[in-house]
Amino acid sequence: MSDTSLSPAAAASATTEAARQVTFRGGGFAPVSYRWIGLAVFVTLILLAEWGTRAGWISALTLPRPSDVLATFGELYQSGLLFKHMGPSLSRLFVGALIGTGLGISVGVLIGLFSYVRSGLVPLVAALFPIPKIALLPLFVIWFGIGEGSKYALIAFGTFTPTVVATYGAVDNVDRTLIRMGQSFGLSWWSIVRKIVLPGAMPGILSGLRISLAIAIILLVAAEMLGAQYGIGAYILEAGSLYDLERLFAGVVILSLLGVLVSALIGMVERRLLVWRS
Protein backbone atom coordinates (compact mmCIF):
# COMPACT_ATOMS: atom_id res chain seq x y z
CA MET A 1 0.00 0.00 0.00
CA SER A 2 1.52 3.32 -1.11
CA ASP A 3 1.98 6.17 1.36
CA THR A 4 -0.04 9.18 0.12
CA SER A 5 0.73 11.42 3.08
CA LEU A 6 2.95 14.49 2.54
CA SER A 7 6.09 15.19 4.46
CA PRO A 8 6.07 18.24 6.77
CA ALA A 9 8.34 20.17 4.40
CA ALA A 10 6.14 19.42 1.38
CA ALA A 11 3.00 20.36 3.31
CA ALA A 12 4.53 23.68 4.35
CA SER A 13 5.54 24.40 0.75
CA ALA A 14 2.04 23.64 -0.50
CA THR A 15 0.53 25.91 2.15
CA THR A 16 2.87 28.75 1.19
CA GLU A 17 2.03 28.32 -2.52
CA ALA A 18 -1.68 28.42 -1.78
CA ALA A 19 -1.33 31.55 0.35
CA ARG A 20 0.72 33.44 -2.21
CA GLN A 21 -1.12 36.51 -3.47
CA VAL A 22 -1.61 36.96 -7.18
CA THR A 23 -0.81 40.46 -8.43
CA PHE A 24 -3.85 42.24 -9.87
CA ARG A 25 -3.49 42.73 -13.62
CA GLY A 26 -6.89 44.14 -14.48
CA GLY A 27 -5.33 46.97 -16.44
CA GLY A 28 -3.97 44.59 -19.04
CA PHE A 29 -0.86 45.69 -20.90
CA ALA A 30 -0.90 49.15 -19.33
CA PRO A 31 2.10 51.26 -20.45
CA VAL A 32 4.19 52.81 -17.69
CA SER A 33 5.71 56.24 -18.32
CA TYR A 34 9.35 56.75 -17.27
CA ARG A 35 9.77 60.42 -18.13
CA TRP A 36 13.31 60.61 -16.85
CA ILE A 37 14.44 58.22 -19.61
CA GLY A 38 13.27 60.60 -22.34
CA LEU A 39 14.92 63.53 -20.59
CA ALA A 40 18.13 61.53 -20.22
CA VAL A 41 18.16 60.75 -23.96
CA PHE A 42 17.77 64.45 -24.85
CA VAL A 43 20.47 65.52 -22.41
CA THR A 44 22.86 62.83 -23.69
CA LEU A 45 22.40 63.87 -27.31
CA ILE A 46 22.94 67.55 -26.46
CA LEU A 47 26.09 66.77 -24.49
CA LEU A 48 27.45 64.63 -27.32
CA ALA A 49 26.79 67.43 -29.82
CA GLU A 50 28.47 69.96 -27.53
CA TRP A 51 31.49 67.71 -26.99
CA GLY A 52 31.76 66.89 -30.71
CA THR A 53 31.68 70.51 -31.84
CA ARG A 54 34.19 71.63 -29.21
CA ALA A 55 36.55 68.72 -29.93
CA GLY A 56 36.42 69.33 -33.67
CA TRP A 57 34.80 66.02 -34.55
CA ILE A 58 31.76 67.91 -35.85
CA SER A 59 32.28 70.87 -38.13
CA ALA A 60 30.79 74.18 -37.02
CA LEU A 61 29.64 74.65 -40.62
CA THR A 62 27.26 71.69 -40.31
CA LEU A 63 26.14 71.79 -36.68
CA PRO A 64 26.37 74.72 -34.27
CA ARG A 65 27.23 74.29 -30.63
CA PRO A 66 24.15 73.75 -28.45
CA SER A 67 25.52 76.39 -26.07
CA ASP A 68 25.54 78.92 -28.94
CA VAL A 69 21.96 77.98 -29.82
CA LEU A 70 20.99 78.51 -26.18
CA ALA A 71 22.65 81.92 -26.26
CA THR A 72 20.62 82.75 -29.37
CA PHE A 73 17.47 81.85 -27.42
CA GLY A 74 18.51 84.32 -24.75
CA GLU A 75 18.99 87.05 -27.34
CA LEU A 76 15.59 86.30 -28.89
CA TYR A 77 13.92 86.51 -25.49
CA GLN A 78 15.64 89.71 -24.41
CA SER A 79 14.98 91.47 -27.71
CA GLY A 80 11.31 90.49 -27.72
CA LEU A 81 11.56 88.84 -31.13
CA LEU A 82 10.66 85.46 -29.64
CA PHE A 83 7.15 86.65 -28.77
CA LYS A 84 6.78 88.59 -32.03
CA HIS A 85 7.35 85.34 -33.93
CA MET A 86 5.60 82.95 -31.56
CA GLY A 87 2.39 84.97 -31.27
CA PRO A 88 1.36 84.89 -34.95
CA SER A 89 2.47 81.26 -35.32
CA LEU A 90 0.40 80.06 -32.35
CA SER A 91 -2.60 82.03 -33.59
CA ARG A 92 -2.38 80.55 -37.08
CA LEU A 93 -1.84 77.05 -35.71
CA PHE A 94 -4.76 77.29 -33.29
CA VAL A 95 -7.30 78.73 -35.75
CA GLY A 96 -6.34 76.52 -38.70
CA ALA A 97 -6.11 73.31 -36.67
CA LEU A 98 -9.36 74.07 -34.83
CA ILE A 99 -11.23 74.49 -38.11
CA GLY A 100 -9.65 71.44 -39.75
CA THR A 101 -9.92 69.01 -36.86
CA GLY A 102 -13.38 70.22 -35.85
CA LEU A 103 -14.75 69.64 -39.34
CA GLY A 104 -12.75 66.42 -39.66
CA ILE A 105 -14.16 64.87 -36.48
CA SER A 106 -17.71 65.91 -37.42
CA VAL A 107 -17.50 64.50 -40.94
CA GLY A 108 -15.71 61.36 -39.71
CA VAL A 109 -18.45 60.62 -37.17
CA LEU A 110 -21.13 61.14 -39.82
CA ILE A 111 -19.34 58.77 -42.18
CA GLY A 112 -19.04 56.17 -39.43
CA LEU A 113 -22.73 56.38 -38.49
CA PHE A 114 -24.60 56.85 -41.78
CA SER A 115 -24.25 54.60 -44.81
CA TYR A 116 -25.38 57.23 -47.33
CA VAL A 117 -22.84 59.74 -46.04
CA ARG A 118 -20.14 57.04 -46.17
CA SER A 119 -20.99 56.14 -49.77
CA GLY A 120 -20.87 59.77 -50.84
CA LEU A 121 -17.86 61.11 -48.94
CA VAL A 122 -15.39 58.25 -48.57
CA PRO A 123 -14.42 58.32 -52.29
CA LEU A 124 -14.02 62.12 -52.05
CA VAL A 125 -11.81 61.86 -48.95
CA ALA A 126 -9.79 59.10 -50.59
CA ALA A 127 -9.20 61.37 -53.59
CA LEU A 128 -8.16 64.37 -51.45
CA PHE A 129 -6.01 62.54 -48.91
CA PRO A 130 -2.94 61.77 -51.11
CA ILE A 131 -2.67 65.33 -52.48
CA PRO A 132 0.46 67.07 -51.09
CA LYS A 133 -1.07 69.93 -49.16
CA ILE A 134 1.99 72.18 -49.53
CA ALA A 135 1.56 72.01 -53.31
CA LEU A 136 -1.85 73.68 -52.90
CA LEU A 137 -0.42 76.74 -51.14
CA PRO A 138 -0.22 78.84 -54.36
CA LEU A 139 -3.83 77.95 -55.09
CA PHE A 140 -4.92 79.03 -51.61
CA VAL A 141 -3.01 82.30 -52.08
CA ILE A 142 -4.99 82.92 -55.27
CA TRP A 143 -8.28 82.11 -53.53
CA PHE A 144 -7.76 83.75 -50.13
CA GLY A 145 -4.95 86.25 -50.73
CA ILE A 146 -1.44 86.34 -49.33
CA GLY A 147 -2.65 87.31 -45.85
CA GLU A 148 -3.86 85.15 -42.98
CA GLY A 149 -6.71 83.52 -44.90
CA SER A 150 -4.47 81.36 -47.08
CA LYS A 151 -2.47 80.21 -44.05
CA TYR A 152 -5.59 79.24 -42.14
CA ALA A 153 -6.95 77.42 -45.18
CA LEU A 154 -3.77 75.44 -45.76
CA ILE A 155 -3.54 74.27 -42.14
CA ALA A 156 -7.26 73.51 -41.99
CA PHE A 157 -7.23 71.49 -45.19
CA GLY A 158 -4.06 69.66 -44.16
CA THR A 159 -5.55 68.56 -40.84
CA PHE A 160 -9.04 67.83 -42.19
CA THR A 161 -8.42 64.70 -44.27
CA PRO A 162 -6.26 62.72 -41.78
CA THR A 163 -8.72 63.56 -39.00
CA VAL A 164 -11.64 62.30 -41.09
CA VAL A 165 -9.87 59.02 -41.87
CA ALA A 166 -8.84 58.46 -38.24
CA THR A 167 -12.31 59.31 -36.91
CA TYR A 168 -14.44 57.09 -39.10
CA GLY A 169 -11.90 54.29 -38.70
CA ALA A 170 -12.22 54.65 -34.91
CA VAL A 171 -16.02 54.57 -35.14
CA ASP A 172 -15.85 51.43 -37.28
CA ASN A 173 -13.62 49.73 -34.71
CA VAL A 174 -16.07 50.13 -31.81
CA ASP A 175 -17.01 46.69 -30.47
CA ARG A 176 -20.31 45.71 -32.11
CA THR A 177 -21.09 43.44 -29.16
CA LEU A 178 -21.41 46.50 -26.95
CA ILE A 179 -23.77 48.13 -29.45
CA ARG A 180 -25.97 45.02 -29.61
CA MET A 181 -25.98 44.89 -25.82
CA GLY A 182 -27.19 48.48 -25.68
CA GLN A 183 -29.94 47.66 -28.17
CA SER A 184 -30.98 44.64 -26.11
CA PHE A 185 -31.36 46.91 -23.06
CA GLY A 186 -33.63 49.20 -25.06
CA LEU A 187 -31.30 52.20 -25.37
CA SER A 188 -32.25 54.77 -27.99
CA TRP A 189 -30.08 55.40 -31.04
CA TRP A 190 -28.75 58.65 -29.60
CA SER A 191 -27.99 57.01 -26.24
CA ILE A 192 -25.99 54.28 -27.97
CA VAL A 193 -24.01 56.87 -29.91
CA ARG A 194 -23.38 59.04 -26.84
CA LYS A 195 -22.65 56.30 -24.31
CA ILE A 196 -21.05 53.55 -26.42
CA VAL A 197 -19.91 54.67 -29.87
CA LEU A 198 -18.25 58.00 -29.06
CA PRO A 199 -16.43 56.82 -25.90
CA GLY A 200 -15.29 53.67 -27.71
CA ALA A 201 -14.01 55.70 -30.67
CA MET A 202 -12.28 58.34 -28.56
CA PRO A 203 -8.86 56.56 -28.33
CA GLY A 204 -8.63 56.33 -32.11
CA ILE A 205 -9.80 59.93 -32.56
CA LEU A 206 -7.17 61.26 -30.16
CA SER A 207 -4.46 59.18 -31.84
CA GLY A 208 -5.49 60.71 -35.14
CA LEU A 209 -5.30 64.18 -33.61
CA ARG A 210 -1.65 63.60 -32.70
CA ILE A 211 -0.85 62.98 -36.35
CA SER A 212 -3.05 65.81 -37.63
CA LEU A 213 -1.51 68.41 -35.31
CA ALA A 214 2.00 67.31 -36.26
CA ILE A 215 1.01 67.87 -39.89
CA ALA A 216 -0.41 71.26 -38.89
CA ILE A 217 2.99 72.37 -37.52
CA ILE A 218 4.69 71.31 -40.76
CA LEU A 219 2.17 73.22 -42.87
CA LEU A 220 2.44 76.24 -40.56
CA VAL A 221 6.13 76.57 -41.39
CA ALA A 222 5.46 76.18 -45.11
CA ALA A 223 2.70 78.82 -45.03
CA GLU A 224 4.81 81.32 -43.09
CA MET A 225 7.68 81.00 -45.54
CA LEU A 226 5.45 82.67 -48.12
CA GLY A 227 4.46 86.26 -47.46
CA ALA A 228 4.77 86.40 -43.66
CA GLN A 229 6.78 89.05 -41.83
CA TYR A 230 6.58 87.34 -38.44
CA GLY A 231 6.30 83.67 -37.54
CA ILE A 232 8.60 80.73 -36.87
CA GLY A 233 8.60 79.79 -40.55
CA ALA A 234 9.58 83.32 -41.60
CA TYR A 235 12.29 83.35 -38.92
CA ILE A 236 13.74 80.04 -40.16
CA LEU A 237 13.62 81.21 -43.78
CA GLU A 238 15.47 84.42 -42.94
CA ALA A 239 18.11 82.55 -40.90
CA GLY A 240 18.61 80.02 -43.69
CA SER A 241 19.02 82.69 -46.34
CA LEU A 242 21.76 84.31 -44.19
CA TYR A 243 23.30 80.90 -43.37
CA ASP A 244 22.98 81.74 -39.69
CA LEU A 245 23.03 78.22 -38.23
CA GLU A 246 22.53 79.32 -34.62
CA ARG A 247 19.29 81.13 -35.46
CA LEU A 248 18.24 78.37 -37.85
CA PHE A 249 18.62 75.67 -35.21
CA ALA A 250 16.96 77.90 -32.63
CA GLY A 251 13.89 78.02 -34.89
CA VAL A 252 13.98 74.26 -35.39
CA VAL A 253 14.18 73.70 -31.63
CA ILE A 254 11.19 76.01 -31.12
CA LEU A 255 9.18 73.87 -33.53
CA SER A 256 10.30 70.73 -31.74
CA LEU A 257 9.25 72.16 -28.38
CA LEU A 258 5.92 73.17 -29.89
CA GLY A 259 5.38 69.59 -31.02
CA VAL A 260 6.22 68.29 -27.54
CA LEU A 261 3.78 70.79 -26.02
CA VAL A 262 0.97 69.73 -28.38
CA SER A 263 1.63 66.07 -27.61
CA ALA A 264 1.56 66.80 -23.87
CA LEU A 265 -1.78 68.60 -24.21
CA ILE A 266 -3.32 65.66 -26.05
CA GLY A 267 -1.92 63.37 -23.36
CA MET A 268 -3.71 65.44 -20.71
CA VAL A 269 -6.96 65.16 -22.67
CA GLU A 270 -6.47 61.39 -22.95
CA ARG A 271 -5.97 61.03 -19.21
CA ARG A 272 -9.20 62.91 -18.53
CA LEU A 273 -11.40 61.31 -21.19
CA LEU A 274 -10.06 57.77 -21.17
CA VAL A 275 -10.10 57.03 -17.45
CA TRP A 276 -12.31 53.99 -18.16
CA ARG A 277 -9.38 52.21 -19.88
CA SER A 278 -7.37 51.88 -16.64
Structural class: mainly alpha
Low-confidence stretches: none
- What gyration radius follows from the Cα positions, in whole Å? 27 Å
Element-by-element helix/strand order:
HHHHHHHHHHH
How many helices does DSSP assign? 11
Largest sheet entry: none
Strand content: under 5%
Mean pLDDT: 85
User: Which percent range fits the helix content?
Assistant: over 70%
What is the general shape? Answer: globular
First-to-last CA distance: 55 Å
**Annotation, overall tally of beta strands:** 0
Describe this protein's structure.
The protein is built from eleven helices and no strands. The mean pLDDT is 85. By secondary structure, it is an all-alpha fold.
Give short descriptive properties of this protein.
0% strand; mainly alpha; 278 residues
In a nutshell, what does this entry contain?
The chain has 11 helices and no strands.
Explain the layout of strands and helices.
Blueprint lengths: L7 H12 L15 H21 L10 H14 L1 H33 L1 H14 L8 H8 L3 H25 L3 H9 L4 H36 L7 H10 L3 H29 L5
Helix pairs in contact: 3-11, 4-5, 4-7, 4-9, 6-7, 7-9, 8-9, 9-10, 9-11, 10-11
